[in-house]
Amino acid sequence: TKNCGKIRNMNTLESVLMFLAPNDCLYCNQEGRLVCENCWNEIIETVPSRCYVCKKSTKHYQTCPSCRKKTPLKRVYVVTTYNKKVKKLVHAMKLGSNREAASIVASYLDENAPYYESTIVNVPTVPAHYRERGFDHSKNIAKSFARCRDLKYKQSLIKHNSSKQVGKSKADRLTQVKNVFEYKEKLNSKNPILLIDDVVTTGASLTEAAKTIKKAGAKDIEGLVFAQTV
Known about the structure:
Elements lengths: L11 H9 L52 E9 L2 H11 L4 H14 L6 E4 L4 H7 L3 H13 L7 E3 L10 H7 L4 E3 L9 E8 L3 H12 L5 E8 L2
Helix pairs in contact: 2-3, 3-5
């Protein structure tokens, strides 16, 4: 892999913005980067290998045999817990519309995730959130990660429902995401897919997105997530 390290994978727009108006570090206020070199390793809390659905301990982040009946995802690698510092970075990206934050998340994925030979697909942001932020943060994360790893990125998964899941129960989340995704083309069953998302709570959106990808023809589907709630 190229291994983009501590965010060497910004696109041209992000590089220009960073030059003209550099961010201050979210954690120590040092000017220059949203997460400075000194704070880089301080925000990550490693998640033990476990099933992303029920959180039972498994090997290599595999989905446990019981939950495999509910999801096409063979395993979901999670980089960090959704701790207070990680939450601050995610909020800068999603609530503060900070593009550099998305590239930083992608760099954390690149530094920590295992080797893949998959096509990258992201769990998409609903159009209303895209308009609010001016960009699709999950798309930016996935494209940056794909660039770091020299992997192919496909933007074919779309989301129709605009219902917000924040604060909803697991049952409500499962109901909300039912049939909200659509994949716009057929997939080659021999081509493995890596589905990327920023934060997973119940796993409802990730699971439903994977089901849609499976219906489009994919058989080998894994997940890669930046953070998971404890």
